[in-house]
Amino acid sequence: MNSSFRSGHLFLFMLVGMLLFAAPLMAKDFLYVPVNNALQIIDCETDTIVKTVPVYSDYIMQSTYSPDGKRYYLNAQHSVYVFDTTTHEMVDTFRFSSELSKVTITGLAVSTDNKTLFLSTNIVKKKQNIPKLNVLPPQLIAYDIGKKKMVKNYPIPHMVFQILTVQNDKNRLLLLGTDLVEIDLKTGKTKKRIGIMNPSKDEEGKNCLAIWDNSSPGDHGIFTTPYYTATGMGYLFVNRKNGKVDLLQGKDVWFEYSTTLSPDKKFLYGVMDELIKIDAATGETVKSVPVPQGTCYAINITSDGKKLYVGPAGPDVSVYNTDTLELIGVIPLVADGVVAHRFSM
Question: Which CATH number is 341's domain given?
Answer without folding.
Answer: 2.130.10.10
